[in-house]
């Protein structure tokens, strides 16, 4: 396993639409292991493949708190098939270190995907896990949390990230 470098906004690779995984292979499982290790080291609750420069439709999530056993979930070729209700969560993103902003998303989502063994599954969830699924799924389409903010907040976050890039 290896910790990969996490790309930060405004890296253009974060804006690419990721490619579907044709088949879950050992290579996919190594990618998932690396992504998990990178996410835990950061630490974060979710990481999508484009964030480490891999243009594949894969993300990992673990929303377990410090005193809970870890619960790694891998999503390969995910598809959100239903969204209901509305919730606002203060979100962070490993591609926007130390920035957290309120983002409005669906309250409940149903997602279909394959796991690390290539087995299809369907999950209906709400709360933080639903937020994480929507946030990570957006990464696969090159959509970032900054896109979900109002104009003023978006400008402020953009300016802050540009400043850091220069500094
Ligand atoms: Zn993110």
Explained architecture:
The protein has a single domain, classed as Peptide deformylase (Peptide Deformylase). The protein is built from three helices and seven strands, in the order αβββββββαα. It has helices spanning 26-41, 127-140, 151-166; strands at residues 46-48, 58-61, 73-84, 87-93, 96-105, 108-114, 120-126. It starts with 25 loop residues before the first helix and ends with a helix. It has 167 residues and is α+β, with helices and mostly antiparallel strands. The longest helix has 16 residues, at 26-41. A hairpin with a 2-residue loop joins strand 4 (87-93) and strand 5. Bound molecules: zinc ion (ZN). Zinc ion (ZN) binds next to helix 2. Residues 93-95, 135, 139 line the site of zinc ion.
Compose a concise summary of this entry.
With 167 residues, this protein is an alpha+beta fold.
User: What's the CATH class, please?
Assistant: Alpha Beta
CATH arch. level architecture? Alpha-Beta Complex
Q: Give a count of the beta strands, DSSP E runs of length 2 or more.
A: 7
Q: H/E series, N to C?
A: HEEEEEEEHH
User: Kindly, what is the distance between the CA atoms of the first and last residues, rounded to a whole number of angstroms?
Assistant: 31 Å
CATH topology group: Peptide Deformylase
Summed up, the domain count is 1
Note the beta-strand portion: 25-35%
Radius of gyration: 15 Å
Derived from helix and strand composition plus strand pairing, the structural class reads alpha+beta
Number of continuous helical runs: 3
**Widest β-sheet, arrangement of strands:** 1-2-3-6-7
Considering the protein shown, what is the CATH homologous superfamily?
Peptide deformylase
Helical residue percent?
25-40%
Ligands, deduplicated? zinc ion
Mean pLDDT: 97
Q: What composes the largest sheet? A: 5 strands, antiparallel
Q: Could you list the spans in which at least 5 consecutive residues all have pLDDT below 50? A: none
Shape: globular
């Amino acid at each position: 396993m290896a910790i990969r470098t996490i790309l930060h906004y405004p890296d253009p690779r974060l804006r690419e639409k990721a490619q579907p995984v044709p088949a879950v292979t050992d290579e996919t499982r190594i990618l998932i292991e690396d992504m998990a290790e990178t996410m835990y080291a950061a630490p974060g609750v979710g990481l999508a493949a484009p964030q480490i420069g891999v243009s594949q439709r894969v993300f990992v999530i673990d929303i377990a708190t410090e005193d809970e056993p870890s619960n790694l979930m891998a999503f390969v070729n995910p598809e959100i098939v239903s969204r209901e209700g509305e919730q606002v969560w203060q979100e962070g993103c490993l591609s926007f270190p130390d920035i957290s902003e309120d983002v409005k998303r669906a309250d409940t989502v149903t997602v279909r995907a394959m796991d690390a063994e290539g087995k299809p599954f369907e999950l209906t969830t709400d709360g933080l896990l639903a937020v994480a699924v929507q946030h990570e799924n957006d990464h696969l389409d090159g959509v970032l949390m900054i896109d979900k903010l109002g104009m003023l907040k978006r400008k402020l976050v953009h300016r802050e990230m540009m400043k850091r890039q220069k500094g």
